[in-house]
Design a protein that fits this description.
Number of domains of chain B: 2
CATH topology of the largest domain in chain A: D-Maltodextrin-Binding Protein, domain 2
Number of strands of chain B: 0
Order of helices and strands of chain B: HHHHHHHHHHHHH
Helix content of chain B: over 70%
CATH architecture of the largest domain in chain B: Orthogonal Bundle
Largest sheet of chain B: none
Shape of chain B: globular
Chains: A alpha/beta, B mainly alpha, C mainly alpha
CATH superfamily of the largest domain in chain A: Periplasmic binding protein-like II
CATH class of the largest domain in chain B: Mainly Alpha
Distance between the termini of chain A: 74 Å
Number of helices of chain B: 13
Number of helices of chain A: 17
Strand content of chain A: 5-15%
Number of domains of chain A: 2
Oligomer: heterotrimer
CATH superfamily of the largest domain in chain B: MetI-like
C-alpha cells in the first residue's frame, strides 16, 4: 500500500509543528513578569488551604509596603523541606521563606540564611514585641538568622462529660483534670476499655511525635532535658532524672491497658475522632486539635464535651510547662534585593499581622500576644497561656535533630509499647546517639 | 529471507538510510548515557565528601560514608527487607495480573469496561492510595478490621505490628501494580498466534498445558521485560513506606529507597544518602547482569 | 515447541467424540466449563480486589465531614453529599492542576512514542552492531531511585534555566520515561517480522515511510500500551514535579498533597479531588482499549 510523498511529508510537518508549538507554549508559561523598577519577592510557604486566603492577603499587603511585587510559592507541608533544601542547594530558593524551627540552625550552618542583625539594629526590622525566648531560636553564632512566625504548645485535652461520668470531680461537682502524674495514672485507670472508653492517648503520626508530642510536655513540665550542651550536644536521656521519670510515666499509662489499640501508628485525626465520639477521655494535643474535634462533632461545646488543662506536673504545686514548636521566617542569603526583603519581613513580623496569622492552630510569638483577642477572651487558650512561661522546645535545634527524634521514637516505642526496661533502653539509646549521631 | 537481486541503484540508497539509522539511536543513546552517568557520578562524588548542610560541606572523607553505612546504617537489614519486599510484590503482582489478563483474553461484551476498571488502582496517585489504605488499615474502625470483625476473625494492628507491616505494604503495592502486569501481558497475549493455540487444542492439550507450553513461551520476551522493569521499579518504590508507616515499626518497612529519602531529606545527610544510592545502583546492576545472563542462557537452551 | 500445519492436519482429534462437527463448533466439554467458570471467578475476584478501595474512595468523597469523622465509618454515606466536591473544586489551583498534568502527560507521551518508535525500529529492524547494548543502557537509566536523582536533575536544570517552566518539566519526564518506552517498544517490535520492512524496501520506500505506514499500524497495541504507561507515569509522578515547578500552577499529584497540611487534614475534599483526578487517565485508557484487542499481524505476511 503506497502513500504519496506529499501525504507523508505533510503529515510529518503538521506533527512537527504541533510539537514545536506545544513545547514553545509550555516553556513560555513558566516565565515570570519582570519590571525594571520593582523587584519580585518570592515568598515560600507551606500554608494549608484553609489558612491560605488570610496569608495571601497579608503577603500581598507586605509586598506593597516593601515596594515590590510578590510571587507566592506554596509547597505541601510534608514535602516542604525536600523542596526547600533542594532549591537552596541549587541557589534558586524563594527570597523570604518559612522554616520549621528544628531546621533553622542547619540551614544557617550551610550558609543559606541572611544575617538580620544589621537591619534589626538599624530599626528596619522591629523585634521589640517578640518573645525573647522565641527570637533566641534564630540567634546563632552571634547573629540573627530567623524571626519567629508563630508558636504553639501541647495541653491536656480532657472530656468533662466523661470525667463526670467516671466520678472524677471536685467538691462542686465539676470535672477535675489531673494535677500530678500520679493523679493522671489514677484517672486513666478509672476508664474501662471494655466499656469502649479509653483513658489516654498520644499520637505517633510523625517521627517527632514521641519526643515532641508524647514525652515532651511532661519533660518540660518537670524541667527535664534529653540533650544538653549547645556547643557539643550530648544525649542525656538516661541520665536526666525527669527524662527517665517521664518515660516511666508513659509506660505506666500504657500498662493500665486503658489506651486505644494501634498506638504505634496512631494518627492525630484518629485520636481526635475517638475523643469527639466520647470514646477517649484524655490526650495531649495542640490548638489545632480543636478544629479536628469540631469537624467530627460540630456541636461539641468547650467545657462540656472538651476542655484543656495544663500538663500534669511531677510534684504537686509546681508550675506547669509544655513542649512548643512553631515556624520561623528567614531570608535567603543569596537574594538579589535584600533591602526590600528586610522591609517585607518587618511587615510580616508586625504584631498586627502575626495576630492575624495565628489564632486557629497556633499563637503569636508576641510578649503580649495572649492578652489580645481572641486569645484573651476564649477560655480554650487559658491552659496554654498558663504554661507559656515554662514552655520551650523539647530539645535544642541541633543539626541532627531529625535523626535524634526518629531514634528517640524507636526507643520510646520499645519502652512504652513493648514494655522494655526504661533505664537500660535509654542507656543504649544514649550510647548510639552519642557514638554515631551527635558526633 | 528474500535476497537482494536488485540493480545497483537501490544499494547506495540503502547505505544512506542505514547511516540515518545511527542517528535514530545515537542521540537517545548519548542522552541515556548522560542520564545514567550524570546522576550516578554526582552521587558518587557527593558520597566521597561531606554534604550535610554544615559548615564543612565539600570536605573529602573518602570511604567514610560507606563504612558508616555498614556500621551504623544497618545495611544488611535494609537490603534484606528490600529484597523480601520486591520479590513478594513481583510474585503476587505477576500471579494476579497475569491471571486477570488470561481471564480477559476473550472479547466479550464489557471486557473493555472491566479492563478499564481494573486499571484504576494503577492510575491513582500515591498520596491518594496512601490516604485510602491508611483508612482501611486503621486498627480502629478501618475497613479491614471491621470486615474481619464482621466475619468473626481476629482483628489486628496491620501497620503497627512489625510482623505484618511489610505484608500490608506488599498487599497495597500488589493492588496497585497488578494492573501493570495485566496491561503488559494482555498486549503480549494478543501476539500469540491463534494457529499455534488451535493446533495445541486439537492435539489434546488441556488449558494448563496450553498455558505452560504454548502461551508462556510465546510471551517470554514480554515476561522477561516486565519482570525486569517491575523489579527495578518495585525496588525503588518507597511512597507507601513513607506515608503509611514512615519506615517503621522498628524499621520493618525501611527499604533502600526509603532510607535514601529519609537520610537525605529528613536527616539532611545528603552524603550518606548518596552512599546509599551508589550501593543501591551497584547492587541492582549486579543483579540485572546476573538475570540477563540467566535468561540468555535459558533462551539458548 | 512448534507445530506445523501438516501435523495439525494429520493428528487425531480429541474430545468426547459424541458428534464430529466442522472445525468451528466443538461441543463444550467439562474442561471448557471449568475454564469459563475459572475465568469468571477470576474476573469477579479481580474486580472486588480492585474496586473495594476505590469504592471506599468514592463513598468517602460523598460523605459529610461529620461522617468522615466517625470512629467506625459507615459503609456508605447517608446521602450523596456534594459538598466535598465543591470544596475540592474551590481549592486553590486544583482545576488548573488537572489541566497542567494533562498537557504535560500528553506532550511527553507524544514525544516518547515518536522518538521511541524511531529508536525501537532502528534497533529491531536494522539490527546494526551495538543495538543490543543500547537497549541495556536504557535499562540502566531506571536503576537510581527518584530520590537520588532529583537533586542532580534540579542542579542541572537550574543551570540550564529550565526550573519553573512546563517545558522543563516535560523534558525531565521525557528523560525518565523515554528509556522505558524505548525498551518496551523494542520488546514489542522484536515480534514484528522483518519481512514487512523488507517488502517495503523492495517496493522502494524510505525507512521513514516504512516506519510510519507499515510498522506503526501493525504495532498499534504496543504503541497503545506504551502510550498508556507513559501517560499514567506522568500523571502520577510527584517528586520531580514538586521540585521543578515553582510558579503558582502545580501538577495534580502535588496539588492533592496540599490538602494535607501540617494539621487538620482536609480529608473530605482530598477524597473528592482524588476521585476526580483518577478519572481522566481511565477515560483515556478506555478509548485506547480497541488497539489492544486488534490482532498483531492480521495476515500481513503469508508464508
Amino acid at each position: 500500500m503506497k502513500q504519496s510523498h506529499k501525504t507523508i511529508g505533510h503529515r510529518a510537518a503538521v506533527v512537527a509543528s504541533l510539537v514545536v508549538t506545544s513545547l514553545a507554549l509550555s516553556a513560555c508559561s513558566g516565565a515570570e513578569p519582570s519590571t525594571t523598577t520593582k523587584p519580585t519577592i518570592v515568598w515560600g510557604t507551606q500554608v494549608s488551604d484553609s489558612q491560605r486566603a488570610v496569608e495571601t492577603k497579608i503577603v500581598k499587603a507586605c509586598g506593597v509596603e516593601a515596594g515590590a511585587n510578590v510571587t507566592i510559592q506554596v509547597t505541601p507541608f510534608s514535602n516542604y523541606d525536600t523542596k526547600l533544601s533542594t532549591a537552596l542547594k541549587g541557589g534558586d530558593a524563594p527570597d523570604v521563606f518559612r522554616i520549621n524551627w528544628p531546621n533553622v540552625q542547619i540551614y544557617h550552618n550551610a550558609g543559606y540564611l541572611a544575617d538580620l542583625s544589621k537591619p534589626i539594629a538599624a530599626g528596619t526590622i522591629k523585634t521589640s514585641e517578640l518573645i525573647p525566648g522565641l527570637v533566641a531560636i534564630g540567634t546563632l553564632s552571634g547573629g540573627q538568622y530567623s524571626l519567629p512566625n508563630d508558636t504553639d504548645g501541647r495541653a491536656l485535652y480532657y472530656s468533662p462529660k466523661l470525667f463526670k461520668q467516671a466520678g472524677i470531680v471536685d467538691d462542686s461537682g465539676n470535672a477535675l483534670p489531673p494535677e500530678t502524674w500520679s493523679d493522671l495514672v489514677a484517672d486513666v485507670k478509672k476508664f474501662n476499655p471494655d466499656s469502649g472508653v479509653y483513658g489516654f492517648s498520644f499520637q505517633q503520626q510523625t517521627p517527632y511525635s514521641a519526643l515532641i508530642e508524647a514525652v515532651g510536655p511532661f519533660l518540660k513540665a518537670s524541667n527535664g532535658t534529653v540533650v544538653s550542651g549547645a556547643k557539643k550536644p550530648e544525649s542525656v536521656a538516661s541520665k536526666d532524672a525527669s527524662s527517665i521519670a517521664a518515660m516511666q510515666l508513659l509506660q505506666n499509662i500504657v500498662k493500665t491497658g486503658s489506651v486505644p489499640p494501634g498506638l504505634s501508628n496512631m494518627q492525630d485525626t484518629t485520636q481526635t475522632n475517638l475523643f469527639a465520639a466520647g470514646k477517649l477521655a484524655m490526650f495531649t494535643g495542640g490548638p489545632w486539635d480543636r478544629g479536628q474535634i469540631l469537624d467530627a462533632n460540630p456541636s461539641a461545646k468547650y467545657g462540656v464535651d472538651y476542655a484543656t488543662a495544663v500538663i500534669p506536673v511531677q510534684k504537686a504545686g509546681e508550675a506547669s510547662g509544655t513542649s512548643s514548636g512553631g515556624w520561623e521566617n528567614g531570608i535567603n542569603a543569596k537574594s538579589k534585593h535584600l533591602e526590600q526583603d528586610y522591609k517585607f519581613l518587618n511587615c510580616m513580623e508586625s504584631p498586627k499581622n502575626l495576630l492575624k496569622q495565628a489564632s486557629t492552630g497556633s499563637f503569636p510569638p508576641l510578649k503580649d500576644g495572649m492578652n489580645q483577642p481572641p486569645f484573651s477572651k476564649d477560655p480554650f487558650w487559658s491552659a496554654y497561656k498558663k504554661m507559656m512561661p515554662k514552655s520551650g522546645t523539647a530539645l535544642p535545634a541541633i543539626p541532627q535533630l531529625n535523626q535524634y527524634c526518629g531514634d528517640y521514637q524507636a526507643a520510646f516505642q520499645e519502652i512504652v509499647l513493648q514494655n522494655k526496661p526504661v533505664k537500660s533502653t535509654l542507656r543504649d539509646f544514649d550510647a548510639k546517639e552519642n557514638g554515631q549521631v551527635l558526633n | 529471507m528474500t535476497s537482494q537481486t536488485h540493480s545497483v541503484l537501490p544499494r547506495p540508497r540503502r547505505q544512506r538510510k542505514d547511516r540515518g539509522g545511527i542517528w535514530f539511536v545515537a542521540i537517545p543513546a548519548v542522552v541515556a548515557a548522560g542520564m545514567v552517568g550524570y546522576p550516578f557520578l554526582y552521587n558518587l562524588w557527593i558520597s566521597l565528601h561531606v554534604d550535610r548542610l554544615s559548615a564543612s560541606d565539600g570536605a573529602w572523607v573518602g570511604l567514610k560514608n560507606y563504612i558508616d553505612l555498614v556500621t551504623n546504617g544497618s545495611l544488611a537489614q535494609v537490603v534484606s527487607t528490600t529484597f523480601v519486599w520486591t520479590v513478594a510484590c513481583l510474585v503476587f503482582g505477576f500471579l494476579i495480573g497475569f491471571g486477570l489478563a488470561l481471564a480477559l483474553d476473550r472479547t466479550f461484551r464489557g471486557a473493555g469496561l472491566i479492563r478499564t476498571v481494573l486499571l484504576a488502582p494503577w492510575v491513582m496517585p500515591g498520596v491518594v492510595i496512601a490516604a485510602i489504605w491508611l483508612a482501611i488499615f486503621n486498627p480502629i474502625g478501618g475497613l479491614a478490621n471491621t470486615a474481619l470483625d464482621a466475619v468473626g476473625l481476629p482483628t489486628h494492628d496491620w501497620l503497627g505490628d512489625p510482623a505484618t507491616a511489610l505484608g500490608s505494604l506488599v498487599l497495597v503495592n500488589v493492588w496497585k501494580s497488578a494492573p501493570f502486569w495485566m496491561l503488559m501481558t494482555s498486549a503480549a497475549l494478543k501476539a500469540v498466534p491463534a494457529e499455534t493455540l488451535e493446533a495445541a487444542k486439537l492435539d489434546g492439550a488441556g488449558y494448563f498445558k496450553r498455558l505452560v507450553f504454548v502461551i508462556v513461551p510465546q510471551i517470554r520476551e514480554v515476561l522477561v521485560l516486565t519482570t525486569l522493569l517491575s523489579f527495578i521499579w518495585t525496588f525503588n518504590y518507597f511512597d507507601l513506606a513513607y506515608v503509611l508507616t514512615q519506615g517503621g515499626p522498628n524499621g520493618a518497612t525501611t527499604t533502600v529507597p526509603f532510607e535514601i529519602y529519609q537520610v537525605s531529606f529528613a536527616y539532611f545527610r545528603f552524603d550518606q544518602g548518596a552512599a546509599w544510592s551508589v550501593v543501591s545502583f551497584l547492587l541492582m546492576t549486579i543483579l540485572i547482569v546476573f538475570y540477563i545472563r540467566l535468561s540468555r542462557r535459558r533462551e539458548r537452551a | 515447541m512448534s507445530i506445523s500445519a501438516a501435523e495439525v492436519a494429520s493428528s487425531p482429534r480429541s474430545g468426547d467424540g459424541a458428534h464430529r462437527r466442522s472445525r468451528r463448533r466443538r461441543p463444550i466439554g467439562p474442561r471448557e466449563v471449568l475454564v469459563i467458570a475459572g475465568r469468571s471467578f477470576a474476573i469477579v475476584l479481580g474486580l472486588l480486589f480492585a474496586l473495594i478501595p476505590i469504592y471506599w474512595l468514592f463513598s468517602s468523597a460523598f460523605k459529610s465531614d461529620r461522617e468522615l469523622g466517625q470512629v467506625i465509618p459507615d459503609l456508605y454515606p447517608k446521602q450523596l453529599n456534594f459538598g466535598q466536591f465543591a470544596g475540592a473544586i474551590a481549592a486553590p489551583g486544583f482545576l488548573s492542576s488537572l489541566l497542567l498534568s494533562a498537557i504535560v502527560a500528553l506532550v511527553t507521551t507524544f514525544l516518547v512514542l515518536a522518538l521511541g518508535s524511531f529508536a525501537a525500529y532502528a534497533v529491531t529492524q536494522w539490527k546494526f552492531p551495538g543495538s543490543e547494548h543500547f537497549v541495556l543502557l536504557t535499562l540502566f537509566t531506571q536503576l537510581l531511585p527518584q530520590t537520588a536523582v532529583i537533586v542532580p536533575i534540579y542542579l542541572l536544570w537550574e543551570s540550564l534555566g529550565l526550573v519553573g517552566s512546563t517545558g522543563g518539566l516535560v523534558l525531565a519526564y521525557l528523560f525518565v520515561t523515554l528509556p522505558v518506552g524505548i525498551w518496551m517498544l523494542v520488546g514489542f517490535f522484536r515480534s514484528i517480522p522483518t519481512e514487512l520492512s523488507e517488502a517495503g524496501l523492495m517496493d522502494g520506500a524510505s525507512r521513514f515511510r516504512i516506519l510510519v505506514s507499515i510498522v506503526l499500524p501493525v504495532a498499534r497495541p504496543a504503541l497503545a500500551a506504551v502510550g498508556v504507561y507513559t501517560v499514567i507515569s506522568c500523571w502520577g509522578e510527584f517528586l520531580i514535579a514538586l521540585v521543578l515547578l515553582t510558579g503558582g500552577t502545580q501538577t495534580v499529584t502535588v496539588n492533592l498533597s496540599m490538602f494535607i497540611g501540617e494539621h487538620n487534614p482536609n480529608i473530605g475534599p482530598l477524597m473528592a479531588a482524588s476521585a476526580m483526578a483518577t478519572i481522566p487517565p481511565l477515560v483515556l485508557f478506555f478509548f485506547l482499549q480497541r488497539y489492544f484487542v486488534a490482532g498483531l499481524t492480521g495476515g500481513a505476511v503469508k508464508d
